[in-house]
Fold this sequence. Notes:
The protein is mainly beta. 6% of the residues lie in helices and 38% in strands. The chain contains five helices and 46 strands. The strands form 15 sheets. Strands 30-37-38-28-41-26-27-39 form an eight-stranded antiparallel beta sheet, with no helix packed on it. α2 crosses α3 (328-334). The longest helix is centred in the middle third of the chain and has 7 residues, at 317-323. The radius of gyration is 36 Å and the shape is elongated. The N and C termini lie far apart (101 Å).
Amino acid sequence: MKLLVTILATLYITTTSAMQLCTNPGELYSMEYNNCSEYAVSAIGMIGQDKSNSSNFELPQGGTLVIRLYALPVLSVLSTSLEFKVTEKTGLPEFSTFNNGWLMMEGSKYRPGQLYYVCTETTLLNTNKSWYNPIETCASIRIQGFVPQFVDPTPANGSIATAYAGKAIELMFAVQTTVVGGCNYALAQGGCWVIEPDASCVCQENCTGSCKCMSYCAPGPTPLLSAVPGLSNPKSSSGLPMESTWARQSTSSLDRPQVWKLSWTPTIWDRSAAPVRMCFEASLTRTGSPLLGQTILLCVGIRVEKCRHYVQAGDTLDNVAAVFQRDWLTLYHANPNLPGFNPTRLTPGDLIRLGVNYAVRWGEGTSQVSRNFLLTPHDLYLTNPELVATVQLSSTIKTAQNNVELQLSFVPRRTIVAGENVTISLPDFAGGLWAGQVSATCSSSYLVAVYSFCDPLVNRPNQPCGPGSWGHCAYNQEGKLYCSMPQCVGTGLHPLVEGAAWSGAGQELVLKMKRTLAGELVHVVIPQSSGLRKLMDVKPPLEYVAALPVQEKIYNPVSEMLEQNYLCVILPLCQDGLTCLFGTDCRIQPSTWA
């Protein structure tokens, strides 16, 4: 005969009447255990169906589970004493307590997703042991965690916002705390929340009625949002665009959601066909320490338009065109909507067209595109700044024939795909054809003092200095500040550059990239064995220009896919062989392809 067993699982609910007993914001008071909890959750969990003498519970990570875990046999009325203990086969979960038949577990001490199985024995002390004495009672407890959640007005993951040079852009990010299996903070703050309904349940705003209701619950852990520098593109130490600001807008840690704002005013050098990528990680904190649980990653982009100019106070067609070394009439013809009676009059806040976006075709390069439009490569570099990177250079004469060792450093503005070539024009150096491997490190140990890079009014000891920041500032014996620069020969294989070649005719150094990179500082040591020499009586400048190749497809770091590449082309005034439909399109006559 089946023995009737009643499994009592009693849920203790904190009430709003006890809230004044707790002094810290968001705390609730437990009458049973006489303490306050920062993350007390009134709805602890749901009792599952009784299956084979067991019950299932879901414990929110911020809640406290209090259940009576013992059986009351039918014959218990004959007993004056009961004994309770946890069975050896399951043991007691860590951080939990079992006292006089009551099991207590604090969810904040466990990792979300963990499953615990607990069995206890109820023994009638004045009854002989038999098949019904002691009686085993079991419960399974799964930890349900707090999780962060992005909510409006957060941009969608993978979305790309459009920005313009000179115009501030603001992106808002909001993170909510979601409690899985527990108190819904946002819902509870809006009115009564039914905990245990019954047939005659009527929950009023003042939480009166025959059902158990609640009008308050703790907001849970505070959401945190931070940029992930290692996932930004181009890379930066903060993970955010240069000169941008990042600030939390919420005034209280109890605000839900917590809101942050990114503000950035791009410059003309930030214009690119590929967007800037920023990645943010949302997490939760408990009194300043990260809470065990889930984190969520969100990556978004900002694309700064290349062929549009945001008009600012004081702008005229003449000074805007001068930035790109063009005539104001060029911009006037590219903007047929400008008032004819005063073409130089511009309204701040307006967008004017610089030229047209030209879809690069397979096999085209910088020289061919510029020739087709009767331009120079330099013209394309001015309107497409992602095609060039500033190169800092230092050289050391190593032999009597003036052979030099070069140290170069640059940061590409766009993503370079493995196998692409970076061309550096070095008109102040000469040499025969050469090809070989390069290095990123130096093998020699001696240093050279250079006094032109460290200013005692600006710099301090150990501060990076010199081309590529290869050296560091230091004081000599006379107390004079100088830049200590390493002079060395390259050694080892370069992690980013597969090899290099020197073109004597073009006085160009070509670097073949080994892997995909963007925004990373590239150091290169060209050994003296390359045969390069510095032209006599010529003092080379500290900065040169590295030209990145023009490709039909360009890497989009947000979508992580290749997409059509566009170049911004400021069309010249109509000349032979070129028909211009300003502001809309351009057509290349066959004669210009020769």
